[in-house]
Structure formats: C-alpha cells, structure tokens
C-alpha cells in the first residue's frame, strides 16, 4: 500500500509490517516537516538569571535534541552468550505522521554521531515512535530479544528508597538536575554496534552510543557518572544525591545551594553532559525528585502518582496486576504491612497463574485496601543521623 507522499507500508497478516520509502523520499523529509515543529528552541530566558553568566553554555540542551559525549570514557563492549541466535524481528507498523517525525530525529542523531548507517546486520530490533504531550518524539527500541542473549553484569543501580535517606533532615534548599538523553553520552564499542541495529525506511542503522532499552544501560551509566562525580568538590559541601541520571543538591542555605548547583552544572558541562533547562529545578524549598515531593525534614508521595493509582481499574490480566503492584510497591514505605496486604495479588503474578483473571474476595479486598493506603499516605520524616536510633 502506498500513500500520496510515497511512503509504502508493507503489512503482514499478523499486523506487523515494515515501513519503507520509494525513490529519494528520505531526502525530502526535512523540507516537508520542518524541524522547528519537533524541537522548539529554548531561549536564554528559560535559564534562571543566576545561571546565565555563571554556567558555561556547553552544558545546556537548548533545543531538546542536543546529545552530549562523556570525556575520557572507554567505549562499552557487550559480551554475547555462547551459541546465541541473533534476533531478526520485523519492524512494527508506524503511523505516517509518527514515521516522519522519527525520520527527522534519526537524521539528527546521525549528524551528531549517535546513530550511523550500516550496509547490513544479522540483528534487527524494531523501533517505535513515542509522541510526548509536548509534541516531541522519542525513539523506543524493543531490545528484549537482544537482552536475552547478552551476558549480564551484576546490577549496581541503587534502590530509590535507600538513597533518599542520604538527604539531610536539616537541608532546606534543593536543586534537581535531569541529564538530557544521558545514555547517549556513553560510547558503544564498534564491535558491539551491530547488536542494536534496526531497519527504517529501507535503511539499516545502528547506535554508536549505549541505547535506551538495553538492560545494562542504567547500570553502566550509573557507575560511569558516579565515578565522574567523585572528582567534583562542592564549595559549600552540600549533599549530592545521584540516581542514574537524576541529580539532587540538598543544602542548608540558599547561597550554598546556588553556589554548589553552579559548580555541579559547570562540572557536567566540562565533562560532556547535557542538561535540559526546562526540567531544571533550581534552588527551591520544595522540589520533585524520583516521584517524591521533598522539603525540609520530610518527603511525600507526589499527588500525580497517587492520582494515577486511584484511576487504575481492577486488573484483568497478569501483566496489569504486575503494573499495579509496581505502582504501589514503589510507595511501600508509606504503606504499613505492604507485603501482607499485597500477598493475594502477588499470587496472581506467579508463572503458573492464568493470564486472564478476575479479582474476587481477598484479591479485590487487597486491591481496594492498597488504593486506600495511598490516600492515607503521610509525610515521612528524614532521618537525623546525629541522634541515636532505637
């Protein structure tokens, strides 16, 4: 089937298909769909006034498409299991408007060295285009089959609940920094790039940086950034909390928070990272971090998370049960006797459980009670390590 724009969609009987292009249509993508629609420029006014002259411009991702490259980092090499069979999963069907936006983003990534075109590869893992509420597009790759054939390292990503205990109880001023497209700042070894190939518009592409969807990316990036931050000295010795690519500065004074945030941003810029100004929470008394609302001496569950849980209907599949338990489980510190309450639902996630389910009796009671616990969730105090624990 061919559209008026020359995009040919080949759909298989099972609903999956390949998107390809006839002739030189790929060359005209940027002319028909201007990049300004995808990547609105952030003006200097979008950066807090205190940071415009004190922080190097190289750290800012002003367009939403700029990718960093960490300095002094060895390319990551991936080990494949012995006798592994390389997956060749066909490309999923993609709506035409999404397809064109993805094409623009791919072109940008090629220009920045994040992607490269290849002649062929024994692997293919399909991509999808996720359109955000802002209108920006994000490429999501289904790497589940690749993750199954690689040798995994011991995960070293910290538990969010545990690292929150690092926040001092007397900290009153906070800054939150979200690194932009962080994984793409870590180079991928040339010998491993073929593993992450995908076919798009009759061309084969591979990542030159560690991709999102790769099971090892969070651990790899977390460790590399942790080592990088060990070289940083904050002038006011504020507490720096790191969870993968999300950073929190916690300080006792406004001046200390400002100075240490500036020091951190300049360090990140010098070392090849990018920061989104639109996501920066600079020197505030109340911030959002890892699904928590943090202020002096306490943390709460964000209202958005509570609302999301309350709006969930009773699950009808094993997968939906896991999703619900994941949502409430993240907040288990606020739910007394969580393991006991969740036990009837946990049984529904076991391997021998049915895929299609209907909550009854204890299962429905557990579902309702966990929701009610989210509504009653109190503010939790930050631990004071100067006092004895009893």
Automatic annotation (TrEMBL):
Residues 15-26 have a biased composition (Acidic residues). SUPFAM superfamilies: DNA/RNA polymerases. Residues 111-294 form the Reverse transcriptase domain. Coiled coil: none annotated. Residues 1-26 are annotated as: Disordered. Pfam families: RVT_1. GO terms for molecular function: RNA-DNA hybrid ribonuclease activity. Belongs to the beta type-B retroviral polymerase family. HERV class-II K(HML-2) pol subfamily. This is ribonuclease H.
